[in-house]
Write a structure and sequence with these properties.
heterodimer, A: mainly beta, six-stranded mixed beta sheet, four-stranded antiparallel beta sheet, about 45% strand, B: mainly beta, Immunoglobulin-like
Chain lengths: ~120, ~110
């Protein structure tokens, strides 16, 4: 079946502009995660959605970052007034049921470059 | 909170040689442990996971890892590597009862040459 998809695959933007990144999770997966991967670094957790519960936003680095998810479908990560330090690969992952499913299925990522 | 240290940023190895990628974790609670692989220009793929039970875990592509609680380690091994194993390998940890997000190490780049 289809895996996690993300769009765009690459995004180049000017400093100060807003960007929106999209994630389509695997159908039926109730939990969705966003991570950031800076060059030469591991993945940093950003935000987590589980069903209709309030999202866990504890990993968002600043109030310029926000994310939404409608039900158990698509999620968008928005970065306002982008800065050069926002340049990274943004990865989305989904799982079938957060409490009992331990494998996170990752999308290919969106490579964001802020010039 | 949990954290992971991958002791080697790069590991060069010749084809058909054995390899070990090291991972140590820090946690005040019991943990689940994972190894993910990221092939060039692809997303992360789960190699193997330790949840409970036998401390020796076998994964895909001939990889295995051993959970050592006293050493707080979860090293990844393969007895004979192939060129196609060239990739970035990430160790990750999450607490059993403390949230669902994974804490990743910085990754180890495995380069297999003929």
């Amino acid at each position: 079946g289809a895996g996690v998809s993300q769009s765009p695959s690459n995004k180049v933007t000017e400093k100060g502009k807003d960007v929106e990144l999209r994630c389509d999770p695997i159908s039926g997966h109730t939990a969705l995660y966003w991570y950031r991967q800076r060059l030469g670094q591991g993945l940093e957790f950003l935000i987590y959605f589980q069903g209709n519960s309030a999202p866990d936003k504890s990993g968002l680095p600043s109030d310029r970052f926000s994310a939404e998810r409608t039900g158990e479908s698509v999620s968008t990560l928005t970065i306002q007034r982008t800065q050069q330090e926002d340049s990274a690969v943004y990865l989305c992952a989904s799982t079938q049921e957060a409490g009992n499913s331990y494998e996170q299925y990752f999308g290919p990522g969106t490579r964001l470059t802020v010039t | 909170a949990q954290s992971v240290t991958q002791l080697d940023s790069q590991v060069p190895v010749f084809e058909e040689a054995p390899v070990e990628l090291r991972c140590n974790y820090s946690s005040s609670v019991s943990v689940y442990l994972f190894w993910y692989v990221q092939y060039p220009n692809q997303g992360l793929q789960l190699l193997l996971k330790y949840l409970s039970g036998s401390t020796l875990v076998k994964g895909i592509n001939g990889f295995e890892a051993e959970f050592n609680k006293s050493q707080t380690s979860f090293h990844l091994r393969k007895p004979s590597v192939h060129i196609s194993d060239t990739a970035e390998y990430f160790c990750a940890v999450r607490g059993r009862n403390s949230g669902y997000a994974l804490n990743f190490g910085k990754g180890t780049s495995l380069l297999v040459t003929p």
